[in-house]
Structure formats: structure tokens, C-alpha cells
Amino acid sequence: MLFNSIEYLIFLPIVFIIYWLLKNNYKNQNILLLISSYVFYGWWDYRFISLIIFSSFLDYFVGQKIEDALDKNKKRWLYVSLLSNLGLLGVFKYYNFFADSFATTMSTIGWEVNSLTLNIILPVGISFYTFQTLSYSIDIYRKEIKASRDIVAFFTFVSLFPQLVAGPIERASNLIPQIEKKRNLNVTLIKTGIFQIFIGLFRKVAIADNLGIYVDSVYGNYEIHNGSTLLVATIFYAFQIYFDFSGYSDIAIGSAKLFGFNFNRNFNFPYFSRTLTEFWRRWHMSLSFWLRDYLYISLGGNRKGIVITYRNLLLTMLIGGLWHGSSWNFVIWGGIHGLFLSLEKYTFSALKIKTFNALGYIYTFIVVLIAWVFFRAPDFHSASTILSEIISFNYGSLFIGNINTFINAILLLALGFVIDLKIFRTNIPLEDYGVKFSMLKLSIIVSLIILLLCLFYSTAENFIYFQF
Amino acid sequence: MNSEITKKLLKLIGLILIISFGLDKLVFFSLNKISDEVMTGQAIGKLNQFLSIKDSTDFIVFGNSRANHHIDVDLFSKNGFNIGVDGVGIAYNSTLINTLKNDKKQLILIHIDTKNFFDPNYDGSDIRGLKTKYHREKNITNSLNKSKSLSVLQRFYYSMNYNGNSIGILKNYFKPSYNYKTYSGYDPLTVSNSQQEMRDIILAKANTSITEDCMGKTKMNTTAVNYLKSIKSFIDNSPNKKFIFVTTPIYNDTCNEDNKLLSTLMQDLGLKYLDFTNLYKDTKDNSYWKDATHMSVIGAEKFSAYLSEKLKPFM
């Protein structure tokens, strides 16, 4: 079920009403949330519900074992969790990628290997809920949280519908305590939740999907376009993916608020960053902090000397890239970020500075833009062709395509940018912004957003991050 | 959730519904008023022009962008109009044809493409291109209702009818794109010097041989066939009109099987069909083309002259 579908427009109020009718018993509310989450997920493919149930069972059981075991056995149970979760992810997401890469490598040294690839469908959201359950087991091992003894609460934690398919990747330390106690709804949650849901819809359905039409038409036929068209399409893509994913996160966080939950922030105006380091503190925060806490720090972080620090940074970003999908382009995307993060770290330590001046905004955007080419292009060859065409500065007349669509995309992008800038300058997080408004003012703002949606909605098939 | 919160929530929802409904109607009726004056541009102007002259012309071309860019109506009639529109299919055209007066004597040329008839994913959603006339033109409203292709929200929020078109309408209201009184609806495609290299790359890519199985695309799409049958029943009720279906040239069509099947269907329905898909296949003159499916002004003028000769007996 998509957040921007009629189904969700019906589903959300029904669950909301029943949920608050059960307000006197949070355990019944949890049962409702669990069933609703499986319905929400099953709308795509009910067969994969069994996979979530399996993951949930495994980590519920292993979590308790880690907590109850003596020191030596704790590690064994942790390995069970790591191997099982990563094993599932490996089979469903990476098997074909590695099988194909192996066959290609063998053929280059003259050893022909028959096709080893299998017809495997990627279950929606597997990367997100796998990381969520992994962090649960690791946190118990690190004695940062207690294992959950409430099976319904734990299963709800793994599958809570607003964050199930594309995050934010919630930590057990934040979400489980909220699930295991009574929730309350107040005016603040209603105002901030509704405001964020509609801002999210505007970002996704109006801005991102309109930008996507142009991006798809150019990247779909990149060979025939000149540098200026490819550059504009890449800039559009940078904003398309931002508004698509942050819009999704806004709807998720806003929806959760209506059920009395506070999710962690996932985006904090990432393009207003002076350094790449700052960018990663603002972009897909739930993933970047996950990678920092469970991968970078586990590898030693910056505690083992400068060379190891750079290695850890690069390795974390390479794996972060691979997390997005089974393609070398994602690895290169992660590699570019890892390389520039390392260079930044070196520059800061050599020059004894903490950040760059205003030119840093441009530097950061350019690096992010170069990396996006690899993220968006279907393969390495096309990415390198696009990039060399852009860098050649051989700019000709710009391909416009459908003039109406192009102008709509530009205007909506400008509007989205102005809204972001306005909220950014107030220093109030978007998550809390709705509380500023009176009921009347909020109604007018939401009505204006509805009007913009009516006039400019575009119908994309999916959210970009669903494929990960 | 206590009763105080419930009251506040209901108040907020009520306010949003009332304000958004009012705002929607204000914008919708304003856009209606403005758009009625607009006679230029693809957003609504061309459709307005068509609806205003459809029963006074003697020659009309219906179809998609290929019809729009390939058929110069001035070579056929001094009083003709080409209502070819980018991205539309048989659903859109069938609906517009059904707005014509049955008894008016006219020659109607309907451009069709095999792609439309053998695309398993074709669902007739191109009819949404007429949504600006929803609840404003009887035949179009009926067809849109019948197609069920509009969102249920459209019954509450009317401004969705102008989705994607409002900026174009405003632009053409304040600054018309051309003089519509001299506009015949035909939009030839020019290929600038800088575009020639790009064009040649595209054509080289399209230069593949015939695929025997046509990639499985030999099963008729029932939605498309149903819309064709709707045109057929209109034809049966319009004895004063002559209808000719046509497919204009493609640079290198890699599947002939679908053309044969479509010809058979047209024959079975008793419809006059001229298939020129492969007319310039062996010519291999890139100057005729803008890309693999659209002819340049050079190709379009040559083809229009050829077609007008072919249609002389019907004029």
C-alpha cells in the first residue's frame, strides 16, 4: 500500500479510529497495529509476510538468549542473529549480484561459468527491517537495552506500518519503550503530524514526481542528450530523490504521530550543508547514524590511528552504498562519499578548521551531484558516459520535453526550496513546525497544499527507496 | 484520546474540508472562466479551438503526436484541422470523434498505431487528457465516467480537472503562443544542425532487423478494440461522413505481424484502412526524420503530398 494512494487514505483513518477506541488497553492497540501492519505490507505481496514473521521470531528469541546467556555464549547468540539476518538479506538482495559478478570475473580469466543467477524477487523493505532487528540484537549484546519479553510489542516494533517499507530505521531503544506503554494523543501531535503528512505528500507527489518525469526521459535516452541537458537532469534528480525520500519519511513520521509515536528525524535539509560530513548528518539520518554506530564504531572508528580511521570511513561508505542495492554503481556511489569524507577529515585536521566557508555549500552539492550520477544511471558505462559529457562542458541547447511538465517541475522545485529555506532559517525542526499554527491557520495551510496537490500531482509508480 | 482532543481533531478536519472545498471551487471556476478564453497551446487551447470549429470544417485529422507532426491538413483542404495531440491513443480520439455532429458532411482521417492495439498495458488512460472538459462537455463527461479512469477524489475536488495544465493555461491566457485564427493544428518538426547528430544516433539505434516473434506483442488489447468499435458505431450512424484510418510511416518497423493483424481487424469491421508504416523503410534518408517514429518537416511534407493524392477520390 502506497502512502500516496487512495487505499492509504482509507486505511489510515480506519486504523486511527479503531486504535483510539481501544485507548484503555495499549496491548489491544498493539495487536491492532500488528494486524494493520501485516495488511499494509501484504497489500504488495502477502507471501513475504512470512519472512517478516520469521525475522521477528528469530530476533525475539535470540534477543532473550543474548540477554540471558553468560558472556561467552552472548557472542554466539549475537552471531546467530547477525548470520541469520544478513543471510536472509544476502539471499534475497545480493545472491544474483555476487553470482553474476563471480561469473563475469571467471570469464575474464578464461573460465566460462554457467549462469548461477536465480529468479529471486526482492521483498519490499527487507533492508530496512533487517537493519532494525540487527540493531536490536547488537544493543542487547552491548547491554544498552533490555530484551523485549512482550512478543506482540516486539513484532509490532519490527513491522510497524509507517516505517516498515522504507524507514526511518528506528532504534529499539527509542521505539520499543513507546510500544510497551500507554500512548496518548494530544493537540501537539495532531498538529505536527497532520502538517508533516501534507508537507510530505506535497514533496513526494507534486515536486519529486514532476521532476522525475524529466529525469526519466533524459536518463532513459542519455546517449542522445548533450551536457547541459544531462546536467539539468542530474540536478533535478538530486532534488527528486531528496523530495521523494524526505516526503516519504515525513508521511511516515506524521502518520506515527497520529498513533502517539515519536519517530526519529530522518532528514534535516541536507542540501544546506557546508561539508560532506555535515551532509551525512542531515541525509537519511537513521541510516547514517546506524552505519556510524554499528559499523564504523565496530570497525574501530577513529580510535586506532589515522590510516585505520580512513579505512573505516571508506569501508563504511562502501557497505552503505551496497546496502542500497546490488550494483557496482551503488558501491561507487558509496566510494565517492567515503573518499571525500576522508579527504575532508584530512583537510580539517591539516588546516585545523571545523568547517568550510560559504563556498562549502557549492563544493558539497557538486560532490553529491557527481555521486548521484552513479546512483541514478543504470550501469557503470552509462554513468561514466553521462559524467564525461557533463564534465566536457560541451553544452548545447537544453532539451525541454513537454513544456508544461518542465515549467511545472521548475516552479514546484522553486516552491519546495523556498519552503525548506523558510523552515531551515527558523531553526525549528520540520517535525515540530506544525505546532506553531493555530487550528485555523493550519487548516488554511493544509487546504492550500491540497489545492497544489490537485493542480500538480503526478502519478509515479513508486517511492524511489522502495527498491532498496 | 479524550473528548476535548476528539473535538479539536474534528474541528481541524471540518475546517480543512470546508476551506479546501471552497478554495477548490474558487480556483476551479476561475480556471474555467480563464480557460474558455484560451485558444492556443496544448494544455487546453488546441482542444478549445477544435470544439469551436469541429462542425464547420470539412476535413479533420485525429491522432497522436505522429498525426500532429505528419499530416499537413492545408494540402488536403483550406478548411481542415489537425487535432493530433502528444501522447494520446484511441480512447482520447474515440471520445472526441463522438462529439462530432452525425449529419455534417466531413472527411475524417484517424491516425492509429499498432503499438496502441498490441500494448498489453494499454488501459485507455489517455482519455484523462480530456479531463479539463469534465462536467463541461456532455459527451466527454459521459466517456470519462464510463472509462472510470478519473480519481474518485475528482468528485469532491474539481480543480483536479486542471491537473498539470493550470500554468500552461495561464501562460496562454496572458501570452498566446500563436495566432490561432491561422493555425491548422499541424505542427511540423524541424531538425536544427545541432540536432542532426543526435537524430542520426537515434536512427542508427533503430536500424535493427525484423524480430520474428514481435516480442510477443501480437495479442489484441481489448480496451483499444472496444474504443475502435465505439468509433465504428459512430461511423454507422454518420452516413454523410467519410472515415479513413491511416498509419503513417515509421523509420524501421521491426514487427510486421501486428500490422497484418490490425489490417485484418479493420477489414473484419468494414473500416477503410491505409497502412503506410513501411513507406520510407527502404529510402533510408535521414533528413525525413526527427527520430525513429516522427518525421521531420521534410518527410512530413513529402508524405502529406503523397497522402493527399491517395485521398483525392474521397475528397
From TrEMBL, chain A:
<keyword id="KW-0812">Transmembrane</keyword>
<dbReference type="Pfam" id="PF03062">
    <property type="entry name" value="MBOAT"/>
</dbReference>
<feature type="transmembrane region" description="Helical">
    <location>
        <begin position="151"/>
        <end position="169"/>
    </location>
</feature>
<feature type="transmembrane region" description="Helical">
    <location>
        <begin position="77"/>
        <end position="97"/>
    </location>
</feature>
<dbReference type="InterPro" id="IPR028362">
    <property type="entry name" value="AlgI"/>
</dbReference>
<feature type="transmembrane region" description="Helical">
    <location>
        <begin position="227"/>
        <end position="245"/>
    </location>
</feature>
<feature type="transmembrane region" description="Helical">
    <location>
        <begin position="330"/>
        <end position="348"/>
    </location>
</feature>
<dbReference type="InterPro" id="IPR024194">
    <property type="entry name" value="Ac/AlaTfrase_AlgI/DltB"/>
</dbReference>
<keyword id="KW-1003">Cell membrane</keyword>
<comment type="similarity">
    <text>Belongs to the membrane-bound acyltransferase family.</text>
</comment>
<feature type="transmembrane region" description="Helical">
    <location>
        <begin position="395"/>
        <end position="419"/>
    </location>
</feature>
<protein>
    <submittedName>
        <fullName>MBOAT family protein</fullName>
    </submittedName>
</protein>
<keyword id="KW-1133">Transmembrane helix</keyword>
<dbReference type="InterPro" id="IPR051085">
    <property type="entry name" value="MB_O-acyltransferase"/>
</dbReference>
<keyword id="KW-0808">Transferase</keyword>
<feature type="transmembrane region" description="Helical">
    <location>
        <begin position="109"/>
        <end position="131"/>
    </location>
</feature>
<feature type="transmembrane region" description="Helical">
    <location>
        <begin position="31"/>
        <end position="57"/>
    </location>
</feature>
<feature type="transmembrane region" description="Helical">
    <location>
        <begin position="6"/>
        <end position="22"/>
    </location>
</feature>
<dbReference type="InterPro" id="IPR004299">
    <property type="entry name" value="MBOAT_fam"/>
</dbReference>
<feature type="transmembrane region" description="Helical">
    <location>
        <begin position="189"/>
        <end position="207"/>
    </location>
</feature>
<feature type="transmembrane region" description="Helical">
    <location>
        <begin position="440"/>
        <end position="460"/>
    </location>
</feature>
<keyword id="KW-0472">Membrane</keyword>
Automatic annotation (TrEMBL), chain B:
<keyword id="KW-0472">Membrane</keyword>
<dbReference type="InterPro" id="IPR036514">
    <property type="entry name" value="SGNH_hydro_sf"/>
</dbReference>
<protein>
    <recommendedName>
        <fullName>SGNH/GDSL hydrolase family protein</fullName>
    </recommendedName>
</protein>
<feature type="transmembrane region" description="Helical">
    <location>
        <begin position="12"/>
        <end position="31"/>
    </location>
</feature>
<keyword id="KW-1133">Transmembrane helix</keyword>
<keyword id="KW-0812">Transmembrane</keyword>
